[in-house]
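testing teh design pipeline on a random one, pls ignore if ur not involved
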């Protein structure tokens, strides 16, 4: 049996990292003796999350180019040159059969050098509007795996494969986990449950909106399971304690996402591509609050793909603090609406996306 050697590069946020890990897991499931090396950016969350998933990772000193004038941009050319040099050495030393880019700073230098050394390259684009790194790398990539229609606006149509976004295997089937999930998080097993997600790093607007709504949630018999992000957890815990809320379980990060989704009746979430893919696969009635602080407002575009099919509810970021409580309470009071949203969003789910992407990688390696 051939031993495939695969480099997967990218990261920066959970929206890049977890699809990358899902792809790696699918490759290992199909070819257990495959050698997989991750390449990330030093100081970014992939350097912690990837080893926890059981994979080796090497870091580049690459940073993003700031959109506004800042002294940090002066260091960019030097860090880029250093990263390109290190990326070339990584590719030569590891000698991969393929390099897969999932977006994020590190994938730029790594895939550029891999392509220059005649290694086949493949991209996985999570969003409805691709990031700059993937748009630049697309010219040399042999295949581009996407999750949204009409991506030929950005990429060569002949390279595009519609696979959907890969999600963690544990999340693809959460049936029968509700009781275990609520027990795990210390939630009441019979109470209506809201799951709040602001992305892997947390989201200020989402957190402030939920803080302003907790009293109303408690009065309406709604308990909250809340991932705040590491930078917000102390503030949130102090707020909960100060006001004596007993209907909230707050965590900086939730690793057991299958149990979190299984516990939830309704989800409030940012509209990053990974979050949306997980909501589709789990079939959760969702209130989406897209971040306005992303390139080309792609989270709103992600969200509208569902909202236009009556598969989610949209709350604008600048209106969330005033409207999130009423929107969520009204939804909990309309069980038929919850059922319809859940059914409609589930129709977008692609539980086998990781396997489809792995298969495209194997095709390129065999050829």
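output:
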């Amino acid at each position: 049996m051939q031993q495939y050697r695969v480099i997967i590069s990218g990261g920066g946020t959970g929206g890049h990292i977890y699809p990358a890990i899902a792809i790696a897991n699918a490759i290992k499931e199909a070819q257990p003796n495959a050698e997989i090396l991750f390449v990330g950016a030093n100081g970014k969350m992939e350097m912690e999350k990837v080893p926890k998933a059981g994979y080796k990772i090497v870091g580049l000193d690459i940073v993003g180019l700031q959109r506004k004038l800042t002294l940090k941009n002066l260091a960019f050319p030097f860090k880029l040159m250093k990263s390109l040099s290190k990326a070339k050495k990584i590719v030569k030393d590891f000698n991969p059969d393929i390099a897969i880019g999932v977006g994020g700073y590190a994938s730029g230098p790594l895939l550029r050098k891999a392509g220059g050394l005649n290694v086949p390259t493949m991209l996985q684009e999570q969003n409805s509007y691709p990031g700059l790194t993937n748009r630049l790398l697309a010219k040399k990539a042999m295949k581009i795996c996407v999750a949204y229609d009409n991506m030929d606006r950005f990429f060569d149509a002949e390279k595009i494969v519609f696979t959907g976004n890969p999600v963690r295997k544990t999340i693809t089937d959460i049936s029968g986990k509700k009781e275990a999930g609520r027990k795990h998080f210390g939630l009441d097993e019979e109470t209506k449950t809201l799951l709040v997600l602001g992305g892997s790093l947390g989201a200020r607007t989402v957190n402030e909106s939920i803080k302003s709504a907790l009293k109303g949630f408690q009065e309406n018999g709604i308990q909250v399971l809340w991932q705040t992000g590491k930078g917000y957890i102390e503030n949130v815990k102090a707020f909960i304690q100060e006001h004596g809320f007993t209907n909230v379980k707050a965590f900086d990060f939730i690793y057991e996402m299958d149990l979190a989704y299984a516990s939830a009746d309704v989800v409030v979430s940012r509209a990053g591509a990974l979050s949306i893919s997980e909501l589709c696969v789990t079939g959760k009635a969702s209130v989406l609050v897209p971040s306005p602080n992303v390139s080309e407002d792609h989270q709103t575009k992600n969200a509208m793909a569902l909202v236009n099919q009556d598969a989610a509810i949209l709350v604008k970021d600048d209106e969330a603090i005033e409207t999130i409580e009423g929107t969520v309470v009204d939804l909990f009071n309309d069980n038929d609406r919850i059922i319809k949203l859940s059914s409609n969003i589930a129709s977008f789910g692609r539980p086998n996306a990781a396997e489809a992407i792995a298969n495209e990688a194997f095709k390129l390696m065999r050829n």
